[in-house]
Design goal:
single chain; elongated; 123 residues; 4 helices
Amino acid sequence: MTWQEACDLAGAISILLGAVLALVGAIGLVRLPDIFARMHAATKPQTLGLLLILVGLALNVRTWASVATLLIVVGAQALTAPVTAHILGRAGYRTGISEDDLLHHDELGEAYRRMEQDEGSAP
């Protein structure tokens, strides 16, 4: 087996694993009960799945221009997915669509209650 065949095989396995992780994340989006669990399913396996798919593509394509482009995509995904999840979680909590009985620890609720009390006591 040559190194090119080994790279092709590793790339194919990586793409397959990435696709399976993306599928697991999509199933989690449909099946999980609340916004926080769905948010987790939308970010963690999707990000890792995309990373594996892009590594598989880099192993199969093997040109510097393509690898550089794929690195830009990885960087954009790594920067935007956590920020998006945080914003979605805050928006879901503020609008009240989160199920409070599923929360184990609620530090954000205490902060919101203090903020409302401070606004209510201001002249």
